[in-house]
Write a structure and sequence with these properties.
The chain has 351 residues and is of the alpha/beta class. The protein has two domains: 212 residues, Rossmann fold, CATH 3.40.50.150; 108 residues, Immunoglobulin-like (Sandwich), CATH 2.60.40. The protein contains nine helices and 16 strands. Helix 3 packs parallel to helix 4, helix 7 packs parallel to helix 8 and helix 8 packs across helix 9. The chain is globular, with a radius of gyration of 22 Å. The relative contact order is 0.11. Bound molecules: S-adenosylmethionine (SAM). The site of S-adenosylmethionine has 21 residues, from strand 1 and helix 4.
Length: 351
């Protein structure tokens, strides 16, 4: 493969300090009409050659990242790392953010391509030769999160649907997901079904709902002109409703849960359903203890400790070789619970 060093454009900010736009349908339209857009799209016209995005799509990614200033970014599907360079350039201009990029079939190709990035871009990128399924599993197990995900891996409907559900699962409030190749049925219908299941998510340009139900093969309107992208934004809080929501099985320092700590993003009035599970590995047989409770919850925004009617206590004493995991599952009926941060157990703490 030819070296890409010669074709690397120098680092240059594309935005003027006073150029700020909203992440909304109106904000994207305003940006599309601006000098700022013309400058950004001119920079990305036909560049980087190895990117499989359209010119406007690359400009859109740069714009969303400079506007949102995400801390942790994920690209599912590195291919030739051309779009990875766009993500890295945008984080460089934003002055924050690190890009993780995945491709299970790229171990022979991707590290060498990324090694040829300009040093200030290279240091903003971590490549992993793993699939989105293995990666998201590990992110959940480590209580990780993202603020920006580009879904551009397998475009089969079932894979695109998994990538979207999995990314949403680890997305922080207000985070953004961009899907590529919505001209293909997989990413397109994965997005449509996802929004039907998660009405609290924002279809930023309001285009997904305009897909004609009786013309399933019609090319849809993208979120931005001359792109092949849908742009979705997470709600500004973690939403809990009548579908139980797990916050993952996290490593913990002890096998004892007496209650959970909540941070309400908005007043709540309804019934909180909690299941707290303590699992202990490193003993045979492994131990699992669990308590479920239904508690009336009424409170204003802010932190709130909710005691369980009885504690969950492991019968296995703390000793070397013991691995504790605590999983909290919550549901809310009679209303919607909006949390500023994921719930945590007490007195056990993440390890
Ligand atoms: C459309 S290309 C990515 C293009 C690249 N993002 C760009 O814009 O230049 C799709 C890539 O996804 C990778 N891929 C396939 N299945 C995947 C999975 N389960 N997880 C992550 N990447 C996957 C493929 O190996 C392929 O390189």
């Amino acid at each position: 493969m030819d070296s890409i060093v010669a074709s690397q454009r120098p680092l240059a900010p594309l935005y003027r300090p006073d150029e700020r736009f909203e992440i909304s349908a109106a904000g994207l339209q305003e940006w599309y009409r601006s000098d700022c857009f013309r400058r950004v799209v001119a920079f990305y016209a036909g560049y980087p050659e190895r990117s499989l995005f359209s010119d406007n799509g690359r400009a859109l990614l740069h714009h969303l990242i400079v506007t949102l200033r995400p801390e942790r970014l994920l690209e599912i599907g590195t291919m030739y790392a051309g779009t990875t360079e766009v993500l890295a350039r945008a984080t460089w201009e934003a002055g924050c953010g690190h890009v993780e990029t995945l491709d299970p079939y790229g171990a022979e190709r991707c590290p060498a391509l990324i090694a040829e990035f300009l040093p200030k871009l290279r240091e903003r990128v971590t490549y992993r030769a793993r699939s989105s399924a293995i990666h998201i599993d590990q992110v959940i197990a480590g209580a990780g999160f993202y603020d920006f995900v580009l879904i551009d891996g397998s475009h089969e409907l079932e894979f695109a649907a998994f990538d979207l559900e999995g990314s949403a699962r680890v997305m922080r409030p207000n985070g953004i997901i961009v899907l590529d190749n919505i001209e293909q049925v997989g990413p397109r219908f994965a997005t449509k079904h996802f929004l039907e299941r998660h009405p609290e998510w924002i279809d930023v340009a309001g285009v997904v709902g305009s897909m004609a139900a009786d013309r399933p093969l019609d090319r849809p309107k993208p979120s931005f002109p001359d792109s092949f992208n849908f742009v979705l934004q997470a709600p500004p809080y973690y939403v809990v409703d009548d579908v139980p929501r797990s916050f993952g099985a996290q490593p913990a320092d002890r096998g004892e849960v007496r209650g959970i700590e909540l941070d309400l993003a908005a007043p709540a009035d309804g019934i909180l359903h909690v299941q707290a599970i303590v699992r202990t590995f490193g003993v045979m047989p492994t131990e699992e203890r669990s308590v479920t409770a239904e508690l009336a919850l009424r409170g204003g925004a802010g932190p709130l400790n909710v005691a369980l009617p009885e504690p969950v206590l492991s019968q296995v004493s703390d000793r070397d070789g013991i691995d504790r995991r605590i999983e909290l599952i919550v549901a809310f009926t009679g209303g919607t619970l909006r949390l500023a941060i994921p719930p945590t157990a007490y007195p056990a703490r993440p390890r």
